[in-house]
From TrEMBL, chain A:
It comes from Macaca fascicularis (Crab-eating macaque). The keyword tRNA processing does not apply. NCBIfam families: TGR. One of its GO terms (cellular component) is cytosol. This is thioredoxin-disulfide reductase (NADPH). It holds the Pfam family Pyr_redox_2. The gene is TXNRD2.
From TrEMBL, chain B:
Its cofactor is FAD. It is found in: Cytoplasm; Microsome; Nucleus. It comes from Macaca mulatta. NCBIfam families: GRX_euk, TGR. This is Thioredoxin reductase 3. Belongs to the class-I pyridine nucleotide-disulfide oxidoreductase family. GO terms for molecular function: flavin adenine dinucleotide binding; glutathione-disulfide reductase (NADPH) activity; thioredoxin-disulfide reductase (NADPH) activity. The gene is TXNRD3.
């Protein structure tokens, strides 16, 4: 999708804009709204190209429609499934097992997303941002063009243009049947019927999150991973995430790559894959195949070459400087479409807001892409901020890094009789006093909530000693962070016992 | 004895050399806003701190090796008196004249850190800090000094801790790790209803742990309702079974009791299930359940006996009412319950009882959650009210009568208005008193050894190194006066105390910006100052308060109310908009608050909040996008979504 901020006088379907932008989604909306608040005439141009399976959605971009929001809600549905199983231990007389109705959940989630779409439109209207639901591409460096539903061609010109078209899931088009029979995260949240027995291909956080909630609502789910899970994340944590999922019913096919997908006469999908080490082929039958092997930026249809905007030849992402400026001075790019940025909603929102403040608000604040906290909403959530252990060691050397860690048991797990083998926290610090905190990694319930505040601490330049001086909140999981006493180097048992 | 020279600040105990550095740090702790202290204390040049460590080790060495060690000044008349006293007893002393050594001033600083005594003479006998001139003479008159001199570490233990709760156990374990011979005396006097429990103190047995678990049980009831909206299907009316829950929780607590005993045993700490009562200096009588008495002596003592729920002192209260001491192990469902009080204990208990579907009324004398931010407190209360808890404001019970015996029985409560003459009557199955807690200090012989208590509250006043009026007796946890009554605080102060007493540490417990969370149905987490307190300290015009209502994503689909969860920060405009108060009302408030508390320790400012990227979609992220100030009066209600 694309959102643009432009303003001035319209002449028979042709507009001139003082500010020019092509962008979409959350970042587009944020930027547009912010620019409009600063007294500019702004237009947002947004269009959702239907997925190969025909799924389409409204204003708001990936996060709202096919990302964070529906993902977290389905994750919540799965968590509730776990809580229903806990409930009898706590005295609630619920007959088990409790069945789950996909249609009911999906409808509720989709209704919420639609209300958000509407909210975004109202917000743009309130702030007098013109919204065009058209697919736009560049005509020249100040003009974009698109065709409206009635076939009318619209030309928009602007002083500044911001590109925020985001990315879309990648299809492994070289695999026979991938495009015809596979779905992606663009489709899963909008399925009317349960996906049934599902094969998730990929090891990205999208893959693991989807597999996690599918398992959680009772579906037979398999994840096929070619190499390592959660590339770019701390690998010890990543493997514990997988371990937890495996012990809670998700099946894993490690070191395997799919080679073809065929539809059987009974409608099931037969997937053939190859074991990358032995070279042996194997097959399995599924109701749904979900590709979650990465995302590609939505830049190809923008005719960027007509405006002279440079992209990376490898990734097709747009190249920008620290001010989010592209190779064309008045064209900017923010969000997932940009090369080398964390692909996260709040990052995109903040980058958009800061950009507009620089453009029109007289500000010079640059976006700080360091220490961006994030959370992977797998069944056991993984929250992190700062450096992974590997990265810390690579940057500072093993001998200069001290890692404090603990295995803990959330209080709520005890009465429920849950296994807490993977509830784990580690803090990566410099070894030299005052032991600056480089990274925090937390695996456990409510990891997102736990991580947020500590991200602030790390931004403030927290030292290990300062974190240890913080009094815990009892009984919570987050207090384990301020009680970390055992270093990995000591070799002592990091299992928390007692209270 | 000569008058002291004019350049000396005087002979009085007020101190012959005011300790500048120490005075400054103390001042900063009181006067500077939260977070500041961490900066002040951030490490200076490491060489000077190493030198300081070295000096401290040297002093400890002197103290450990000397039968009597006197830090003195050659011109000080009080020092002279003390030296003369020991000389008259025929005891040889080690004396360091601080005015005759190069680093005398530094020695005095370090001494003041070790003993919290700034003046000389500073006297140690057999490693025990006796104090200054007056204390030494008092000890001489009471016979303590002679005892100290005789009993050359002839005590049974290095440390006896009275009270096996969070503070006592953490202190015991740490002291044992440092190689000391330690005993813990723990004895639970049964409640008037006869409830008693095992090792671990309030938190584990009748506090945080069972409370949070019952809160979780109530949250699960809510989760069950939510889950239908998320596609989970079950039609039957789900009932809650009190006995099943309580049994599961008590099983968990038993395992914790056992765990504590085990860990004391592993660390070779002697655990005695007896009631401790001081009989003379350094000597305590331990009385067990059967009434058998045993006597133990120790060089030092820590009092960590905590508190117990208060009773009203009206007709029928002890006979028929229960308290939090009884509730968590109640063998039957309490039924229709009246909760008396508005403390966090009262509101938490009322919250989870209502969560199980019970008919719950809270009788409040004046305000909710005294000491907490009142805007937040009222929001906590109104959420409870909207979820079925009834509030009777401005009433106090005057009489409790039993109508029927049973499990539960039936009680008639007569209450009168605090404002007029109006009286009301109500019938309940259970009356739970949660009107406050009293410390357990009056029946442990403290007067025999001269440990002062606050006569009104019964609490023990301590200095900033947890020392009582008797130098070898310390107090940690809820029993100590003016300290936050929280488990993690007790644990931290107990542990740090042991490290100061027996280890190479000087670190004092930092009681500033202690975060906490009230586990009411909608949780309330906070750190730093309440709005009222901030206004009182900094003046309204110097504060900027940012706030917003928010709607947790999980609540949207569940169809739970919008514009209920609330976030607020209080910033000091005179200090770079430093965050001096943090308040959140919403799900998982405890988990959210902890990290922000750590950030406040590091000097969190509004700018840093703005510069930090949120984690999406969470509740905690709301603090990274706070835009509306309270002073602007702008609307903070959320219309629609996102």
């Amino acid at each position: 999708m694309a959102a643009m901020a432009v303003a001035l006088r319209g002449l028979g379907g042709r507009f001139r804009w003082r500010t020019q932008a092509v962008a979409g989604g959350v970042r587009g909306a944020a930027r547009g709204a912010a620019a409009a608040q600063l007294g500019r005439k702004v237009a947002v141009v947004d269009y959702v190209e239907p997925s190969p399976q025909g799924t389409r959605w409204g204003l708001g971009g990936t996060c709202v429609n096919v990302g964070c929001i529906p993902k977290k809600l389905m994750h919540q549905a799965a968590l509730l499934g776990g809580l229903i199983q806990d409930a009898p231990h706590y005295g609630w007389e619920v007959a088990q097992p409790v069945p789950h109705d996909w249609r009911k959940m999906a409808e509720a989630v989709q209704n919420h997303v639609k209300s958000l779409n509407w909210g975004h439109r109202v917000q743009l209207q309130d702030r007098k941002v013109k919204y065009f639901n058209i697919k736009a591409s560049f005509v020249d460096e100040h003009t974009v063009c698109g065709v409206a539903k009635g076939g009318k061609e619209i030309l928009l010109s602007a002083d500044h243009i911001i590109i925020a078209t985001g990315g879309r899931p990648r299809y492994p088009t070289h695999i026979e049947g991938a495009l015809e029979y596979g779905i992606t995260s663009d489709d899963i949240f909008w399925l009317k019927e349960s996906p049934g027995k599902t094969l998730v291909v990929g090891a990205s956080y999208v893959a693991l999150e989807c597999a996690g909630f599918l398992t959680g609502i009772g579906l037979d789910t398999t994840v096929m991973i070619r190499s390592i899970p959660l590339r770019g994340f701390d690998q010890q944590m990543s493997s514990m995430v997988i371990e937890h999922m495996a012990s809670h019913g998700t099946q894993f096919l490690r070191g395997c790559a799919p080679s073809r997908v065929r539809r059987l006469p009974d409608g099931h999908l037969q997937v053939t894959w190859e074991d990358c080490t032995t070279g042996k082929e194997d097959t399995g039958t599924f109701d749904t195949v979900l590709w979650a092997i990465g995302r590609v930026p939505d830049t190809r249809s923008l005719n960027l070459e007509k405006a002279g905007v440079d992209t990376s030849p490898d990734t097709q992402k747009i190249l920008v400087d620290s001010r989010e400026g592209t190779s064309v001075p008045h064209i900017y790019a923010i969000g997932d479409v940009v090369e080398g940025r964390p692909e996260l909603t709040p990052t995109a929102i903040m980058a958009g807001r800061l950009l507009v403040q620089r453009l029109f608000g007289g500000s010079s604040d640059l976006m700080d892409y360091d220490n961006v906290p994030t959370t992977v909403f797998t069944p056991l959530e993984y929250g992190c901020v700062g450096l992974s252990e590997e990265e810390a060691v690579a940057r500072h050397g093993q001998e200069h890094v001290e890692v404090y860690h603990a295995h803990y048991k959330p209080l709520e797990f005890t009465v429920a009789g849950r296994d807490a083998s993977q509830c784990y926290v580690k803090m990566v610090c410099l070894r030299e006093p005052p032991q600056l905190v480089l990274g925090l990694h937390f695996l456990g319930p409510n990891a997102g909530e736990v991580t947020q505040g500590f991200a602030l601490g790390i931004k403030c330049g927290a030292s290990y000693a300062q974190v240890m001086r913080t009094v815990g909140i009892h009984p919570t999981c987050s207090e384990e962070v301020v009680k970390l006493r055992i270093s990995k180097r000591s070799g002592l048992d990091p299992t928390v016992t007692g209270c | 004895v000569e008058q002291s020279p004019p350049q000396s600040p005087g002979p009085g105990k007020a101190g012959d050399a005011p300790n500048r550095r120490s005075g400054h740090v103390r001042g900063a702790r009181v006067l500077s806003p939260p977070g500041r202290r961490a900066r002040l204390s951030s490490p200076g040049p490491s060489s000077s701190s190493e030198a300081r460590e070295e000096l401290r080790r040297r002093l400890r060495g002197l103290i450990e090796r000397s039968r009597v060690m006197i830090f003195s000044k050659s011109y000080c008349p009080h020092s002279t008196r003390v030296k003369e006293l020991f000389s008259s007893l025929g005891v040889e002393c080690n004396v360091l004249e601080l005015d005759q050594v190069d680093d005398g001033a530094k020695v005095q600083e370090v001494l003041s850190e070790i003993t919290n005594q700034k003046t000389v003479p500073n006297v140690f006998v057999n490693k025990v800090h006796v104090g200054g001139c007056d204390q030494t003479f008092q000890a001489y008159q009471s016979g303590l000094l002679q005892k100290l001199l005789q009993e050359d570490s002839a005590y049974d233990y290095d440390l006896i801790i009275v009270g096996g709760g969070s503070g006592g156990l953490s202190c015991a374990k740490e002291a044992a790790i440092l190689g000391k011979k330690v005993m813990v005396l723990d004895f639970v006097v049964p409640s008037p209803q006869g409830t008693s429990w095992g090792l671990g103190g309030t938190c584990v047995n009748v506090g945080c742990i069972p409370k949070k678990l019952m809160h979780q049980a109530a949250l699960l009831g809510q989760a069950l309702c939510d889950s239908r909206k998320f596609g989970w299907e079950y039609n039957q009316q789900v009932k809650h079974n009190w006995e099943t829950m309580t049994k599961a929780i008590q099983n968990h607590i038993s395992s914790l009791n056992w765990g504590y005993r085990l860990s004391l045993r592993e660390k070779a700490v002697a655990y005695v299930n007896s009631y401790g009562e001081f009989v003379e200096h350094h000597k305590i009588k331990a009385t067990n359940k059967k009434g058998q008495e045993t006597y133990y002596t120790a060089a030092q003592f820590v009092i960590a006996t905590g508190e117990r729920p208060r009773y009203l002192g009206i007709q029928g209260d002890k006979e028929y009412c229960i308290t939090s001491d009884d509730l968590f192990s109640l063998p039957y469902c309490p039924g229709k319950t009246l909760v008396v009080g508005a403390s966090y204990v009262a509101l938490e208990c009322a919250g989870f009882l209502a969560g199980f579907g019970l008919d719950v009324t809270v009788m409040v004398r004046s305000i909710l959650l005294r000491g907490f931010d009142q805007e937040m407190a009222e929001k906590v209360g109104s959420y409870m009210e909207q979820h079925g808890v009834k509030f009777l404001r401005k009433f106090i019970p005057v009489m409790i009568q039993q109508l029927e015996k049973g499990s539960p029985g039936k009680l008639k409560v007569l209450a009168k208005s605090t404002e007029g003459t109006e009286t009301i009557e109500g019938v309940y199955n259970t009356v739970l008193l949660a009107i406050g807690r009293d410390s357990c200090t009056r029946k442990m012989g403290l007067e025999k050894i001269g440990v002062k208590i606050n006569e009104k509250s019964g609490k023990i006043p301590v200095n900033d190194v947890e020392q009582t009026s008797v130098p070898y007796v310390y107090a940690v946890g809820d029993v100590s006066e003016g300290k936050p009554e929280l488990t993690p605080v007790a644990i931290q102060s107990g542990k740090l105390l042991a490290r100061r007493l027996f280890g190479a540490s000087l670190e004092k417990c930092d009681y500033i910006n202690v975060p906490t969370t009230v586990f009411t149905p909608l949780e309330y987490g906070c750190c730093g100052l309440a709005e009222e307190k901030a206004i009182e300290v900094y003046k309204k015009e110097n504060l900027e308060i940012y706030h917003t209502l928010f709607w947790p994503l999980e609540w949207t689909v569940a169809g739970r109310e919008n514009n209920t969860c609330y976030a607020k920060i209080i910033c000091n405009k005179l200090d770079h908009d430093r965050v001096i108060g943090f308040h959140i009302l919403g799900p998982n408030a405890g988990e959210v608050t902890q990290g922000f508390a750590a950030a406040m320790k590091c000097g969190l400012t509004k700018q840093l909040l703005d510069d930090t990227i949120g984690i999406h979609p969470t509740c905690g992220e709301v603090f990274t996008t706070l835009e509306i100030t309270k002073s602007s009066g702008l609307d903070i209600t959320q219309k629609g979504c996102g």
